[in-house]
Amino acid sequence: MSTPSPREQMTLGAAQLLSRAGLAEASFRNVVALTGAPRGSIYHHFPGGKDEMVAEAMRTVGVRVVGALQRAEVEAPVDVLAVLAGLFRRVLVDSACDAGCAVAAVAGSDAAGPLASQAATEVFTSWVSALTACFESAGVDPARSAGLATLTLATVEGALVTARAAGEVAPYDLAVDELSRLLGGAADARATSGRED
């Protein structure tokens, strides 16, 4: 596995800061402190400033989630939920409920620049599209797949916020378990996240 370039390091650092502390904390200064990237190279890699860096960070997160959904083998609607919920449950567990979704941290923020705002919209759209395709692969009527995709994403994102506010994973698991029942099965996000806790 190749070592990330300085630009990739800064992008990943920005994504981590967004997920933990929000847009205000994803500054160049904090990214440099977190990643050890040379401060002098910031504007070389991101001539558009913080707005460009944040947009790139969200796109990186977006691509990773889409990739996981595209690689998933789903046989039933509940399997689709398990994949997405497992990804974000891992973020909660690994951070002791201190981190959430980097994209949600930017979406709708008055402080977000035009590049970041556009990237947030694009990422959420790509996630709904990938989820829609997964639901169709799982045998859901195409007329319902987009609606279920939107519901699934909204549930997971809302459950992340609730779990972070509570400081524990239980509210997240409760929401995922309830949606899994509505989808007709039991989505084991705990197994998907690689944790039993």
Can you summarize this structure?
With 197 residues, the chain is mainly alpha-helical.
- How many runs of DSSP E, i.e. beta strands? 0
CATH architecture: Orthogonal Bundle
Order of helices and strands: HHHHHHHHH
Shape: globular
CATH class: Mainly Alpha
Q: Give the low-pLDDT segments.
A: none
CATH topology: Tetracycline Repressor, domain 2
> Main sheet, how many strands, which sense, barrel?
none
Which percent range fits the helix content? 55-70%
N→C terminal distance:
30 Å
| Estimated radius of gyration | 17 Å
Q: Which oligomerization state do the chains in this entry correspond to?
A: single chain
Write out the CATH superfamily name. Tetracycline Repressor, domain 2
Strand-pairing-aware structural class: mainly alpha
Beta-strand content estimate = under 5%
Description:
This protein is mainly α and 197 residues long. It has one domain (6-186): Orthogonal Bundle (Tetracycline Repressor, domain 2). The protein contains 9 helices and no strands. The chain has helices spanning 6-21, 28-35, 42-45, 50-71, 77-94, 114-137, 142-166, 170-182, 189-192. Helix 6 (114-137) crosses helix 7 (142-166) and helix 7 packs antiparallel against helix 8. It is globular. The relative contact order is 0.15. The model has no long low-confidence stretch (mean pLDDT 91).
Secondary-structure topology with pairs:
Elements: H1 6-21, H2 28-35, H3 42-45, H4 50-71, H5 77-94, H6 114-137, H7 142-166, H8 170-182, H9 189-192
Helix pairs in contact: 1-2, 1-4, 4-6, 5-7, 5-8, 6-7, 7-8
